[in-house]
Amino acid sequence: MTGGPLTVVVTGGSNSSGIAVARAFALAGHRVFTIGSNEARIKAAAAEAGDDVTPLVCDLSRLESVRELASEIHGSTEGVDGVIHLVGGWRGAKGIEDQPDEDWAALEQSAVTTLRNVSRVFYKDLASSPAGRFAMVSSTAVAAPTAGAATYAAAKAAAETWTLAVADGFRRDQSGNKDEPTEQHSAAVVFVVKSLLDAAMRREHPERKFPGYTDVEDLAAAAVGLFDKPAAELNGQRLLLAK
């Protein structure tokens, strides 16, 4: 558990999970920057999340834009302690033969490229923080891919692999450092869900039970809870949130 307020960046902040995560960190007393690609949407999302949530606009698929984002954040805070990456998307097809190239290009950009850019730009912050945390949301489809969801599952698998490599970087820099080992204080993790569920979905489909779905509020609680657990326990873990 950290001793004071944290600075947390929530990417993909315009969607319901981003709002829930940003709100949870703000209510816990932390400083939150929530990031989206559309100015009107991210401002509305930040207003819904709370007064202490700062909205920023960035195209996370462009490395230079993410570097500019980091510079803007660093202008008002010493460093970033946490990045909760919620950018993704879904594309499906009937089977292997009809997986469109357009779907792969879209998911590679949203699920993989954005994560690569964000993790590279903020890696030093998270490695330097006494409680650095990086988290992404993946899918149960990675462990049990179907032909129809091949593109989606492959993109999520690539994002998971990158995140686990970030975890290895933290380990090598800290507890696994052969020259100057230190206690592990930074961690990268993967949250695994079947699908996310929010209040709007329940209102639209009151007859449905949504078996195995993870409520965005539960995801938010899990994200905040990362800072209450030892980094050595968390680093490199796939944390199943599916019920």
Describe what this molecule looks like in 3D.
It is built from eight helices and nine strands. The protein has helices at residues 16-27, 39-49, 63-74, 101-128, 150-173, 199-204, 216-225, 231-234; strands at 7-11, 31-36, 53-57, 82-85, 132-139, 186-193, 196-197, 214-215, 238-240. The chain has a seven-stranded parallel beta sheet with strand order 3-2-1-4-5-6-9, with helices on both faces. Strands 7-8 form a two-stranded parallel sheet. α1 (16-27) crosses α2 (39-49), α3 packs parallel to α4 and α4 (101-128) runs parallel beside α5 (150-173). It starts with 6 loop residues before the first strand and ends with a strand. The model has no long low-confidence stretch (mean pLDDT 94).
Largest sheet: 7 strands, parallel
Approximately how much helix is present in the residues? 40-55%
Strand content: 15-25%
The averaged pLDDT comes out at: 94
Q: What gyration radius follows from the Cα positions, in whole Å?
A: 17 Å
Task: Give a summary of the structure in a few sentences.
Helix content is 44%, strand content 18%. The chain has 243 residues and is of the alpha/beta class.
